[in-house]
Design goal:
single chain; alpha/beta; 7-stranded mixed sheet; about 15% strand; globular; binds S-adenosylmethionine; Rossmann fold; about 220 residues
Length: about 220
């Protein structure tokens, strides 16, 4: 009996995961882990490793940066890639809010205006890679035509999530990833709605992460365009 149960007990020594961020943190001190959502962070790190080992080409982007707390890790993991940072840097736009409030997707009263470009850039280790796209997304694209290997969509509301999927998925390299925050977050039903509609139209597959925000991950298979 004990022997059988023993199969399921935690081994005395767990092989270390080969993670850029974890290694950097644990090489310093455990207290250096300042970002609270480790599942989100380590998923980013592992996606970065797959992208590098698969020689997946393209820039990286985040739409919905706020104070740059997740963006700084995107910048660190993808230290060799151009990094586009999209945000109004003034909080939600009324056009987006109206849709989500009218549809009953969103009923919080959140203020994301307490940020600015300099503050965000001061957190970036590889600042030269950063291209700030300040303004209303998708207008802030301004005709940008790029290829991407990794994108984080974290805008909370229906319109910018839908616009982000429509813009980035066709420009995602095969082998690349899109992380979309808040799919499984009941405070932001517009996110789930936009992704569900996009999935119906495009047939994309995704995997849900057990992180704090209920992120889902879309991957474009190799050989697809
Ligand atoms: C939840 S915060 C992002 C948090 C950040 N990704 C993090 O993990 O720390 C959402 C951000 O999306 C931005 N946002 C929402 N809709 C937008 C739009 N249409 N265009 C530009 N930025 C938008 C807001 O200004 C806000 O800063």
């Amino acid at each position: 009996m004990n022997k059988v149960l023993g199969l399921f007990t935690r081994p005395k020594s767990i092989p270390p995961l080969r993670l850029t961020i974890e290694t950097q943190f644990y090489d310093r001190k455990v207290t250096d882990i300042s970002y609270p959502d480790h599942v989100r962070l380590l998923a980013l790190d592992m996606a970065g490793k797959e992208i590098r080992s698969g020689n997946v080409e393209g820039s990286v982007a985040e739409v919905g940066v706020f104070q740059g707390d997740f963006a700084k890790y995107i910048n660190r993991v993808f230290s060799d890639r151009k990094f586009y940072l999209f945000d109004t840097f003034e909080g939600f736009d009324d056009r987006d809010l109206k849709k989500d409030e009218d549809e009953g997707y969103y009923s919080l009263d959140q203020d994301f205006s307490l940020t600015n470009v300099e503050h965000v850039l001061s957190k970036m280790e590889f600042r030269d890679n950063c291209v700030v796209k300040k303004g209303y997304f998708p207008e802030s694209l301004g005709g940008l035509d790029e290829t991407f290997c990794f994108v984080s969509l974290d805008t909370d509301l229906y319109n910018p999530i839908m616009e982000g999927l429509n813009y980035f998925y066709p420009r995602l390299s095969p082998g690349g990833y899109i992380f979309i925050h808040d799919y499984n977050n009941s405070h932001y039903d517009g996110v789930k709605q936009a992704i569900s509609e996009f999935r119906e139209e495009s047939g994309v597959a995704f995997f849900p992460l057990p992180d704090w925000g209920g992120t889902i991950v879309i991957m474009k298979p190799k050989g697809h365009r």
